[in-house]
From TrEMBL:
Keyword Membrane among record annotations: yes
GO biological process, one term: carbohydrate metabolic process
Pfam families in UniProt: Glyco_hydro_1 (PF00232)
Domain of life per record: Eukaryota
Transmembrane regions: 25-45
Protein name stated in the entry: Beta-glucosidase 18
Keywords: Glycosidase, Hydrolase, Membrane, Transmembrane, Transmembrane helix
The keyword Magnesium appears for this protein: no
Length: 517
């Protein structure tokens, strides 16, 4: 009898719970529909951009990007590194990706999660392998292609303490060991690999400007405890390129055939345009491009540093032996391009540059910067609408510009736009109605990309940075690039308005109340 009463009470409770859940779901659904209608109204008041999935070739990937350190960490109450606890919530995140209709997800492997210590110990952390196996399997189960970045800024502290990380050639073998561990465990399912994320930017922020750990630099770039801004970025990149070349050789020889995968690298790819019509500034814009993305890509396509760099640099630019040139030449199947903005370029060889008006203009008249002053302003007017990141302005035509540059310089090698995204200026609220700017940003950049594709550029995919707000390196949680917001207390994922537009663009979102014709 007692059992029966408690069973009835239990049933009553679970029915009540169900009713409450239904009410909650309905409410969330209705409120999101209202937000969508509101945003559509705001959008229609602004410039409408007619961009459709059908503007891109069949099979073109639409994805979102994250990186391990920025989203994975676990709240432990001892540091700011709470991030989004993707480690425990990855299934929820995969469901989100699926519900948006995205066909690819780009993420990175945490080096220290997989290999907690150096190569000599041969210790592989099985729990880390299981975690990535589960992500990969669950993505594939839902028809989402995993795009794996092997290294995205984070490496075990031990490698820094023992020999100084990327400043030492010893790092090359450590990286190859890490890459091989990833290939061994995941290459039977992962088809798209990127060895390193943005070696060029990492070298700049770490060894030139000293903004990222281990924070090394020298004047005029900054006043760090130690470092040499004119030389160390060149050494770090040299080691990263050789590490890439060795890992690619291994991949092609032993792992590629498993699923006929492809391997590339991702570079930070600003577009530069001359500040004035003077020849010197036009040359400065070309130099800036060569000293930025081509610094990485020329060696990996042609086997050596760009002629524009070799023209000015002396012995501080490390050189490749003939075997190394052979190793590097043609060592990418595709180019990953992280593109956020465009800057003006001004020559500092023939004219004087004032190089102290921001942290990013310090040292513009130095060789390591190609003697180029870059700025987002001309005569007091910004090149495009400012965003939360001082170097990123909204200049959609820059997307077509950088893609065309790559197409011309590298004989139309396949490309993926591996990152493109918007963070709102600090004084603006990032949620709901202000997200209209993010929507507009993606529409305009996609339209510009579609134009490049129409003109023959071999671009095969576009990834939004980022799936969710996350730990934005030296800016912490202040900058928000995500299409999902993270509730700081509960870490719940809350869709921003842009998500509905993503769904609509990907032809996923069809309920009667929200359909906009
Ligand atoms: C890129 C990085 C990425 C993120 C975005 C905003 O340079 O690859 O991790 O920080 O910028």
């Amino acid at each position: 009898m007692e059992k029966h009463v408690s069973a009835v009470a239990e049933r009553g409770r679970s029915q009540k719970q169900k009713r409450m859940e239904n009410i909650k779901i309905t409410w969330v659904f209705v409120s999101h529909c209202l937000i969508l209608l509101l945003s559509a109204a705001i959008l229609s008041a602004e410039e409408q951009v007619d961009i459709r999935r059908s503007d891109f070739p069949h099979g073109f990937f639409f994805g979102a990007s994250t990186s391990a350190y920025q989203v994975c960490n676990i709240a432990d109450g001892t540091s700011g590194d709470i991030a989004n606890d993707h480690y425990h919530r990855y299934m929820e995140d995969i469901e989100i990706i699926h519900s948006l209709g995205l066909t690819a997800y780009r993420f990175s492997i945490s080096w220290s999660r997989v290999l907690p210590s150096m190569r000599e110990t041969w210790w592989v952390n099985q729990a880390g392998i299981n975690f990535y196996n589960s992500i990969i399997d669950n993505l594939l189960l839902r028809g989402i292609q995993p795009f794996v970045t092997i290294f995205h800024n984070d490496y075990p502290q031990e490698l820094e303490d023992r020999f100084g990380g990327w400043l030492s050639s010893l790092m090359q073998e450590e990286f190859v060991h890490f890459a091989e561990t990833c290939f061994k465990h995941f290459a039977d399912r992962v088809k798209y690999w990127m060895t390193i994320n943005e070696p060029n930017l990492l070298a700049e922020v770490t060894y030139e400007r000293g903004l990222f750990p281990p924070a090394r630099c020298s004047p005029p770039f900054g006043h760090c405890a130690s470092g040499n801004s004119d030389v160390e970025p060149l050494i770090a990149v040299h080691n990263m390129l050789l590490a890439h070349g060795k890992a690619v050789k291994l991949y092609r020889e032993q792992y590629k055939s498993k699923v006929n995968g492809v391997i590339g690298i991702t570079v930070c790819a600003y577009m530069y345009t001359a500040l004035t019509d003077f020849k010197d500034d036009k040359e400065a814009a070309n130099r800036a491009l060569a000293f930025n993305a081509a610094w990485m890509l020329d060696p990996l396509v042609f086997g050596d540093y760009p002629p524009e760099m070799k023209r000015y640099h002396g012995s501080e630019l490390p050189s490749f032996s003939s075997e190394e040139r052979e190793l590097l030449r043609d060592s990418i199947d595709f180019m990953g391009i992280n593109h956020y903005g465009t800057l003006y370029a001004k020559d500092c060889i023939h004219s004087h540059c004032i190089c102290n008006d921001s942290v990013y203009t310090l040292g513009s008249d130095r060789l390591i910067r190609g003697f180029v002053y870059t700025t987002g302003e001309r005569n007091g007017f910004p090149i495009g609408e400012p965003t939360g990141m001082s170097q990123f302005f909204v200049v959609p035509r820059g997307m077509e510009g950088i893609v065309n540059y790559m197409k011309e310089r590298y004989h139309n090698k396949p490309m993926f736009v591996t990152e493109n995204g918007y963070s709102s200026p600090g004084n603006e609220d990032d949620i709901y109605q202000h997200d209209v700017k993010r929507i507009h940003y993606h529409q305009l950049y996609l339209a510009s990309l579609a134009q490049a594709v129409r003109n023959g550029a071999d671009v095969r995919g576009y990834f939004i940075w980022s799936l969710m707000d996350n730990f934005e390196w030296s800016s912490g949680y202040a900058l928000k690039f995500g299409i999902y917001r993270i509730d700081p207390q509960t870490l719940n994922r809350i869709p921003k308005t842009v998500c509905y537009l993503v769904q609509r663009f990907l032809e996923q979102f069809q309920p009667w109340c929200c359909r906009i014709v």
